[in-house]
Amino acid sequence: MDNILSFLKKIIPEPVFRFFQPLYHKFLAYGAAFFYLFPGKRLTVIGITGTNGKTTVTHLLTDILEEAGENVASISSLRFKIKDTEWRNELKMTMPGRFRLQKFLHDAVASGCRYAVIEVTSEGIKQFRHLGIDFFMAVLTNVTPEHIESHGSFENYRNAKAELFRRSKIHILNGEDPHIEYFLKIPAETRMVYTKKDLPSDIHVRLLGDFNLENAAAAYHAAKIIGIDTDSIKHVLERTSFIAGRLEFIQKEPFSVVVDYAHTPDALEKVYKTLRPPTSSTLGVKSPKTPSVFPVGGRLVCILGAAGGGRDKWKRPEMGRIAAKFCDEVILTNEDPYEENPLYILDDIERGFSEIKNPKFHYQKILDRREAIRRALQWAKEGDTVIITGKGAEPWIMGPNNLKIPWDDRDIAREELKMVK
Fold first, then answer.
1. Does pTM top 0.85 for this prediction?
2. Residue 104's CB: how many other CB atoms inside 10 A?
């Protein structure tokens, strides 16, 4: 279908193409739903949306429903899952295209699933992939600037997220998100506003970071409204120590090596704060109440890049500013350049370094991502933390003309650690 769209874009004048493009997407969405007999109407479909945290909430809620004995299908940026069968999401697309999505839901119905938990993206909604699906519940994790170039403005991006809630009966909203008032105006049959403080005191969440307490609270309240017993929720939240590629520890001794998907300024700052909270001695601010999980004095060695292809160029210097604030050593490296010159991307990130005066901060550029990881591991000393951000558990590095280079930060880190040892 994407090939057809590309062909039409070449032969049709741009103004005409733009006018008819939404109709094309809607036709595909309803056509796919009709072809597969509207499987979304025969499932209790739960949509998880937000800028960050969608995958974590999707996995937690799926596991909770399964713990309670339910048959569940789920789609996330990491995997497709129908009951006990799961396979890796290698599409480089969180929310699949219309026919693939409807076929998945059809297969879920055929397998006897009662629930479907779907990670819903603004890009998916922009292309109307959600049409033809009856969403029972919508869960909001947070909204921070992302995909601005694609949507045209932050307001358009936020409105795309809101579309999921306009089509859902039950709304689960993060009370700590600054944009909650916007979502509270959308009518709902049932609405739950949560914060991380709402978790029962006897539930001890193993996932690191305050932001994961919010994710756990979202999954907790979604499950409670569905009618899942507290014991099932508690068991899942207390046994889950990480989601693949999300604050995933590759090694803890003698120095820590962590891989995380953080690719937005908000996510990057939260990850850095979790790994080594700011202290009065380094940044002139008070230490947070939550202590660091790492030895005092250990350095934070950060491997950082940004996606190309014209994706959110505004955030590159902002991510550089955040890295200069929290990291002792930064290696700027290639991520997903697409058609862009990767050196230009690194230059954009570098511009943010000058905004922060941190005497302990040093950086260098190593374009080869494997070499960057190798160098960071060679630098690391006992008590340090090496954090590799941007790709998490993604299976590819994306190059020009949709070139896919097989890759997994976690595997590369493990391979290079063997050489260091």
1. yes
2. 21
